[in-house]
């Protein structure tokens, strides 16, 4: 399978950084700039049962990335995430609570090369 | 406030089928419109990612249309419908942004070929594109209907469709959001 334009880098991002308040850190824009994909975590005000179902699916998807050597990080925090990830056998990834857009871009850009990227070889074209 | 339920890959191209990612991660042309219009983003799970994995290749509806995959999609649809219901209860407007041509996430165009058994020709061969919804979208429609919730307006990312025009895609997203304050 030839390589496409994916980055092999995925950030699990707390809702407050996906839908930031005015003046807040926009992690989607930071991820776009740094070349990362985003998996959104449930909003903090969702009922526990709703959040639990969403976190179950987040963990299922994170597991698939982890087992293929994609780099995962956590932006912010979300109650219940650790247990959801633990259910599929993976721990909380490296984490940042970004104080600024620039700090987040620097964190994402400074990560080591993902194992999956090394295995995939150079991009096509 | 308006809430856009977006296909997973709009925020994460790493979830795409092999050869399918068109950018590193965030597909900005749609996100930019949502930001400009002040819409909240709710990312839906990718139905195919956890089921068929990262090494899957492009397929048509008939290849995915199994009882097990429908159960998987129904489970995901329940999780998404929970959030749609919350947002509707709060009086918020909802739009669904899918992926046109997808066997799972198509909202007006899906892929169909009853004879297809191998790897479809893609992106050059496109005879499989037909009007219709993807399997996950069908399951979400069923779940919302069971809850008495109307199906939201839909619009699709179109970069997998022949003749894709980014300006036309943007106009379609803007049209779907039009008349609704973000």
Notes on the protein architecture:
The complex is a heterodimer of chains A (125) and B (182). Helix content of chain A is 43%, strand content 14%. By secondary structure, chain A is an alpha/beta fold. In chain A, strand 3 (71-75), helix 4 and strand 4 (94-96) form a beta-alpha-beta unit. The longest helix of chain A is centred in the middle third of the chain and has 20 residues, at 48-67. By secondary structure, chain B is an alpha/beta fold. Chain B has seven helices and six strands; from the N terminus they run βααβαααβββαβα. Chain B has helices at 8-11, 28-37, 47-52, 61-64, 67-89, 135-146, 166-177; strands at 2-6, 40-43, 93-99, 109-111, 129-131, 153-157. In chain B, strands 2-1-3-6 form a four-stranded parallel sheet. Chain B has a two-stranded antiparallel ribbon with strand order 4-5. The interface between A and B is large, with 39 and 37 residues.
Q: Can you summarize this structure?
A:
Chain A is of the alpha/beta class. In chain A, about 45% of the residues lie in helices and about 15% in strands.
Number of strands of chain A: 4
Oligomer type: heterodimer
The succession of helices and strands of chain A, N to C, reads EHHEHEHEHH
Structural class of chain A: alpha/beta
Helix percentage range of chain A = 40-55%
Distance between the termini of chain B: 5 Å
Low-confidence stretches of chain A: none
Number of H/I helices of chain A: 6
Please report which band the strand proportion of chain B falls in: under 5%, 5-15%, 15-25%, 25-35%, 35-45% or over 45%.
5-15%
How many β strands of chain B by DSSP? 6
Helix/strand order of chain B, N-terminal first? EHHEHHHEEEHEH
In terms of per-residue confidence, which ranges of chain B show pLDDT below 50 for 5 or more consecutive residues? none
Widest sheet, order of strands of chain A: 2-1-3-4
Strand percentage of chain A: 5-15%
